[in-house]
């Protein structure tokens, strides 16, 4: 990607009124961000959902001027830009209708290299009990080598990042602010360690301050990135509850740590379990069982990886489907038909067989995923 492409991509995200969905829609029709800015008004107005106000905003000079400063900042500070069509952009976010148009990454981590991602969230007022649960959880997950996802906040988030680092696991902190405004500031030292062993990730431009409306947006990224989300200590209205809601909406697996009756810091967790919005978490084996994460060792003998077994027993049609599914947390059946080149009937027949064989799982809205994802 040349710097001119990058400049226009940055500028598009700065145009007032253009959010993630509209930005993607514009590029889908125009081909590139540069073409969006240089297209004639009459052409832009033919795009569904684009009106005069949006077209007029695209003629403003300010977005490009700010984008030039942003580009200089990211280049000077080794911040990577992950555009939603880039190979390095997290595949777990690509299928989300509200996935970020662009992400800023400080660090060398590539989330796509991890077959397992675990999100850990909870109250800022963590108790010693909650911190202990996080410590045992991450230590127990160490053999699976997941990347630990959290939000850099005080309390449970901080404990999750620290324990990941102590166990030599990669960790990524999702922020509700820009790279110039690390929040909370006392976690600046921790943030630097996270960069060395993972990365800081945000969809917000560098000058963005940690304002309250940014955090639900941050929470949806935590949810989208996490194959399994564990809520450790949360009241009814905590940010962790918002993250859990997003996770359920994205068909991710949610777990909650039960707590004492009447304890405000456990009220949210207990509610999630009671209302069947989360699996009960009591030990690491609960996650391994629900997620179908085999330890790889049975009676002292190494187990053949599940993915290898899937391919060994698959028909040619099934192998085409498996090759696509292994790179996507979930996928819509029409996209599967298009990417495999199979007919609708071949695809449906293969999926039914694979579902009966326990190889794939059908999700709401005609989506499919590999079993155990």
Give an overview in words.
With 373 residues, the chain is α/β, with parallel strands linked by helices. The longest helix is centred in the first third of the chain and has 15 residues, at 62-76. Helix 8 (128-141) runs parallel beside helix 9 (156-166), helix 9 (156-166) crosses helix 10 (188-197) and helix 11 crosses helix 12 (239-249). The strands form three sheets. The chain has a nine-stranded mixed sheet with strand order 1-2-6-5-4-3-7-8-9, with helices on both faces. It has a three-stranded antiparallel sheet with strand order 12-14-13. Helix 10 links the parallel strand 5 (171-174) and strand 6. The chain has three domains: 1-75, DNA polymerase, domain 1 (Orthogonal Bundle); 111-291, 3-Layer(aba) Sandwich (Rossmann fold); 306-370, Arc Repressor Mutant, subunit A (Orthogonal Bundle), CATH 1.10.10.10. The chain is 46% helix and 14% strand. The two termini are 32 Å apart.
